[in-house]
Amino acid sequence: QVEMARRVTQAIRERGTVVLEAGTGVGKTAAYLVPALLEGGKVIVSTGTKTLQDQLFHRDLPAVRAALAVPVSIALLKGRANYVCPYHLERAQHEGRFLNREEAGHIRTIARFAKSTRTGDKAELAAVPEDSGAWAQATSTRDNCLGQDCPHYKQCFVVAARRDAMTADVVVVNHHLFFADVMLRDDGLGELLPACNTVIFDEAHQLPETASLFFGENVSTSQLLDLARDARMEGLAAAKDFAELPEGARTLEKAARDLRLAISGENARFSASQLPPAFHEALEKVAGELDHFGKLLESQAERSEGLEHCWRRAQELQLVLKHWRAVDEPGLVRWVEVFSQALSMNATPLFIADIFKKQMEGHPRAWIFTSATLAVESDFSHYCSELGLQGADTGCWGSPFDYPNQALLYAPQGLPDPNSREYNDAVAAAAWPLIHASRGRAFVLCTSLRAMRRIHELLKARFEEEGFDHPLLLQGEGSKSELLARFRRLGNAVLVASQSFWEGVDVRGEALQLVIIDKLPFAPPDDPVLAARIEHMKKAGRNAFMEYQLPRAVISVKQGAGRLIRDESDRGVLMLCDPRLITKPYGKRVWRSLPPMRRTREADEAVAFFETAEAGDALA
Q1: 3-class state of residue 611 by DSSP
Q2: Assuming Cys at both sites, which of 13, 385, 482, 578 could form a disulfide with 478, CB separation 3.0 to 4.6 Å?
Q3: Quick check: 603 and 414 in contact, CB under 8 A?
Q4: What sign does the dihedral 64-69-72-73 (CA atoms) show?
């Protein structure tokens, strides 16, 4: 921790760039906060999740500030969707259009909260679930915010949070906000970055993905539906006599929904070349309806700030849609993602290193990148090349925990090829003896939703058959935070989950003693962006698998494995089911990148680990 703090101090003093990996238990948060507060100047700390943001602002920063006794001011800044919007809340109450009574009750609760809160941050209002539809009506988006034209501008919580951020010495943001607001100067916050001396990225392994998202362009059916809904509400308030507006909104909504229905399936991605003719026909219809709707809004724009803003939004969407349909740049990949109710059209840069490097240049400042998972066998070249950080200083420190005694890595024998139809059944069968031995207290982390559902189904049947009376939870049965709270509270549960539980999850103590990973998490090769990157690298004579796919998979495995040992008293088994860990030459690169656990291929030895642990507890 001290060595890491020295490297951070050096980077701040020299306005340098440093990439640091620190294993669980090193205490990397203190290692970067202490020098950041002592060296002075304005600091931006960007994290991977809102949960970590809240932890930093409410717990870690105040503790370090108090210990150092330095007069440093701090501010927390989130995306605008996290703050109650007085204007949209008022509209929602006035309109009264809710899906159910529960949502109507939530709006009333939010309205009471808005009168008493200083920050307007929805994280402070536990009484309304994070996934309640009421929040969408009580908050603003970049698209529907009226900015300085808003009649409630002086009471705006977003404006107040940004004012605090401008004057604070240390500002805590998250990666999405950093790229949307600070890097891309999207929301008039461009002055925050030039004023700062130091930028610290915690959970920095997420940056390549987040940056790709923001350095590209996208337009979605949700944006079209939101525009139609907001324009209808504004029309009811300011242009009731103009019947063509609600009719135009209905027509645009239908065209947007038809565009989603033009592609079957859900949670799937398609490259532009894979899109069916029906999609292009539906897109033509959307473009026509959006153009018509824009003209209707233009004719009414002077009747209110809200209508004028909707007209501007329609123009912006027309431009992005036109660009997406016309773009044929060699450095961009056009692709479409479909969800259960929505569809988004994306144009993503093939590589972001040059763009990111350009954004970092200009005003000299320190750039610090840190995470528990950045390197592959202590090699940072993959990460640095993705972000254009060649020449950056690097450092790597393993966890101080006693992994040889605290943890066991178990690679079961006899599993079929991971691509075979019977693979999920084999994983569930191999997992059962360990789940039984650990008396629940397990995460089963899957690489796809399909595998997650199948393994859950098989385990459920096995639990019933064997009379194994332990709770079996499934991702999607509640919000992530609700499921985690239940898992901790129950103390003997099994949670079957997919990607969203691989990282940013901290369960200490006896509640979690077994982590099962079904497969090495290689991204699907038919993913449009990945496929285009692989093709590009192959044409350049490079080995896309070794240079790009494998390092990304290794970093994901390290994240999943990191759920197991969170504390010096934790004990547990990491079960990596994928036979390629042993049968393929690259398997060594995977397990050599993991902490130094004892290893076994024998089920009996893995089961005995839990029996030994129980005996030790009994003696204690």
Answers
A1: helix
A2: 482
A3: no
A4: positive
